[in-house]
Amino acid sequence: MTTITTMTTTDVRFPTSRELDGSDAMNPDPDYSAAYVVLQADDGSRGDGFVFTIGRGNEVEVAALAALEAHVVGRSLDGPDDLAALSHSMVGDSQLRWLGPEKGVMHMAIGAVVNAAWDLVSRRAGLPLWQYVASLTPEQLVDQVDFRYLTDALDRDQALEILRRAEPGRAERTAALLRDGYPAYTTSPGWLGYDDAKVERLSRQAVADGFAQIKLKVGGDLADDVRRLGIARAAVGPDIRVAVDANQRWGVDEAVQWMEALAPYDPYWIEEPTSPDDVLGHAAIRAKVAPIKVATGEHVQNRVVFKQLLQAGAIDVLQLDAARVGGVNENLAILLLAARFGVPVCPHAGGVGLCELVQHLSMVDLVAVSGQTQDRVIEYVDHLHEHFEDPTVIEHGRYVAPTAPGFSARMKQESLDAYRFPDGSAWA
């Protein structure tokens, strides 16, 4: 038996606001950050996970992680049954659950611990997380999912049917993934703080690098958005998809009006046009801006809100996030919901370490759940990968499938030391 002996947390922050990397209409000065957790076991194995934040909220997440320690230290962690039990115990803590339930700061902290546990178990199995998850039986996978609140849209038998339907082709899809990688798109040209020349240069570079889709941030000023989107469209040509992202900037009517002004430049999707909690607002926007697609998910709080977005026909693209909900277990539920409704999953990855994590979730979807990549792409941003031991690798606009054991979540010790807040050398 493997027993967790210690759980440590670190406040890690990168000063990305200095160059406006990550800037958008709602978040003009982000410092990409990670509330970082390490689980150490008695056999020497270790699992790493984190909550992505953009600065001062990080200290709140570190405190939330510390509140979970009693659920973790002393617990056995050997395989899928233990992973399911750990998730259930933390989500089911009634006193902590009162703060949500199953949303917000505590739920994100639970997700970091769950992800760290999966990192540990997959490392001990000698497999990258995506391959470890895809090696589990359909029955083991559905045992990870909490179907409470979902059965009006997806029950255990329906989930098993989805997984069993995908099971025969797992080996072939794994081989293709290792050979060809997974399609990506890049947000790197489109941060709102970049000037026009930088937008044009980076848009052209993205096409040269093999990307078939880029994304621009919008929502600050309409005239600026029209000009910038025109510049990007001219730079990439008519055949490259250009998505836009408002980061929750608008109300429903404003979103429709703004997209009517941008429509001549053929935006592929509008991301987060309004509040992530406004299911009916997303549905109304989608009805009025078609054929422009509506995408959301990076701030969706849990599987229940995703269920409603799908039931209401409110989104064309589901953008799950590895660090927003309750970790791998809840993201399995979300992948299964998306497969049930036939909606493609294109994860959010615009933050420190998110590219490293979500690549695994999309690859699980391909191998074990939906079985396809049609209209599915993973977001890519080109900064901060150098701080990870197993960083994301992009070739010709595609994610190279990770082969190192684990969840690709482990940061280099020198980066943890340098960017620890407030006493790391980068901050001192």
CATH H-level superfamily of the largest domain: Enolase-like C-terminal domain
Spell the H/E element sequence.
EEEHHHHHHHHHEHEHEHEHEHEHHEEEH
Distance between the termini: 42 Å
CATH class of the largest domain: Alpha Beta
Q: How is the largest sheet built, in terms of strand order?
A: 5-6-7-8-9
Largest sheet: 5 strands, parallel
> Structural class of the secondary elements?
alpha/beta
What sort of overall outline do the alpha carbons produce when their principal axes are compared?
globular
CATH topology of the largest domain: TIM Barrel
- Oligomeric state of this protein: single chain
The overall strand count is: 12
How large a portion of the residues is in β-strands, by DSSP E? 5-15%
The helix content, as a percent range, equals: 40-55%
CATH architecture of the largest domain: Alpha-Beta Barrel
Catalytic activity: L-fuconate = 2-dehydro-3-deoxy-L-fuconate + H2O
GO molecular function: L-fuconate dehydratase activity; magnesium ion binding
Organism: Lapillicoccus jejuensis
Domain Mandelate racemase/muconate lactonizing enzyme C-terminal: 196-292
